[in-house]
Design goal:
It contains three helices and three strands, in the order E-H-H-E-E-H. A three-stranded antiparallel sheet has the order 1-3-2. It starts with 9 loop residues before the first strand and ends with a helix. By secondary structure, the protein is of the alpha+beta class. A hairpin with a 2-residue loop joins strand 2 and strand 3. 5% of the residues are buried. The protein has one domain.
């Protein structure tokens, strides 16, 4: 039986804003405006972000400052 590759670590929509120090509304607005990486659907009513996408986004922001 072939081994399946583990999915990349992801961040839940409910936890990410508090981890970043922003509100859920702000995160939603940033994502809608293209100022934050888009979330990826993982189920009919569930979306998550790849942790690597968030880390790369934060590094870009730090480099721009």
């Amino acid at each position: 039986m072939p081994q399946r590759e583990a999915p990349p670590p992801s961040c839940r929509r409910r936890r990410s804003p508090s981890n970043l120090g922003i509100s859920r509304c702000t995160l939603w607005r940033m994502e809608r405006n293209g100022d934050f990486p888009p979330a990826i659907p993982v189920g009919p009513k569930s979306k998550r972000w790849r942790r690597t996408d968030i880390e790369m986004h934060l590094k870009r922001l730090q480099g721009a400052a």
